[in-house]
Amino acid sequence: MNTVNGEVGGTLQAAQGRVGEATGRALLRRLALDQAQGRVPSIVAAVVRDGRVAWFGARGLVEGEPPSARTQYRLGSITKSLVAAVVMRLRDEGRLNLTDPIGRHLPEAPAGEVTVAQVLSHTGGLTAEPPTGWWERTPGVPVAELMARLDGGHVKHRPGRRYHYSNVGYALLGELVARLRGVPWLQAVREEILDPLGMRDTTERPRVPHATGYAVHPYADVLLPEPEHDAGAMAPAGQLWSSAADLARWAAFCAGDTGGVLAAETVAEMREPATVDDGDVWSGGYGLGLQLLRHAGRRLAGHTGSMPGFLATVWADPAERVGVLYLANTTAGVSRSLLVDLLDIVQEYEPRLPEEWRPSAVDPGLLAMTGLWHWGPTPYTLRLLPGGWLSLAPVGGGGRASRFVPRDDGTWLGLDGYYAGETLRLAADHLDLNTFIFTRAPYDADAPVPGGVAGWRTSGEG
């Protein structure tokens, strides 16, 4: 068996643009290879396009039956992204700043000078694991006990110096959410994230139907059941169970279909690289609660997850509005390339068509400002973008290119590139971009160029 196109439950509707038969067969074969070669007891996967499930596949058995899109598996560290979303809601409401030291909200926390943003991005230098027994395989301790066990020795690096993944950091963020909301962290996640997105298959502990977690013997085809416990204070780092249907909704969220839970700009901020974890030519990194991956020109955001007996991953490409995910009940065995291979198959078999171009109404005054401008002797092009935005970029590409959005006071705010956050002012004979003056002609003597313009000289003039 096992492939289904279309409806998988939750708030996602049947995909009118579901993949074709040949694409579905290629996707299922790729999934089947991982299940067979990795000796995975069961695995489910899905492709999401434009907020809808375009393909669902399953291999293996759960309780003697093929798993469905509503069969639960453990999410592991994907839980962290859900906690991060509530933290970002608190920021947007003004309840905290990302630059706040976490000690402002959790006075007993170790390294109280570490900022909320650094904890979100695993750059705070906190220890990776709690000072308890192997927390993923044993019952958890209460928050007060975890806090009492943590001390300055559990800060391993100078805050901000490097990426160092910290499960402990997300235990602290879960407690931060609980204190600022006045309810347990999971209640806040459920009321503010899960319920509004229709993710009703996502729960703290398993419900029927769910997969049992297994380890597969490395040298024989036999299974070892893995334990499952309430992680207590460490639960925000990896407690939750979910289904392919719910994880598909989360993939759509990460791709930009936020359902009003967060502003699209906030989710885009979560996807921005805060750190990299694999060297100079980076392919992997971390934002604010979201892992990042670059693959074949794509910029993907999502998260991996693992707990004893379970593996899961979700990736979303907001530029293409596509997402991929899998959930499996095995401690090891799923290849790291599975999901990007599924993306590559969709791209090869059914590449997205570009949006049709259509003319749009524009402000005549802005239209007169478009065209060639010069930063000193360097030519730039000012263009009007759809939606009334502006783009200023060097002729030939590269360099200090930025987009700008209008503000109520008549100025323009830089969105990205070198001039992100900076102010652009338009005048008939020049552009003032954070004190840099752009002129129609190189160093136009009639424009207010700082330092003055003495005029161009031929070679040999003294």
TrEMBL record:
Q: Which Pfam family would be a valid example here?
A: DUF7586
Tell me which residues make up the DUF7586 domain: 362-440
Q: Which InterPro entries match?
A: AmpC-like (IPR050491), Beta-lactam-related (IPR001466), Beta-lactam/transpept-like (IPR012338), DUF7586 (IPR056008)
Q: Where is the Beta-lactamase-related domain?
A: 35-333
Q: Which domain of life is it from?
A: Bacteria
Name of the featured protein: CubicO group peptidase (Beta-lactamase class C family)
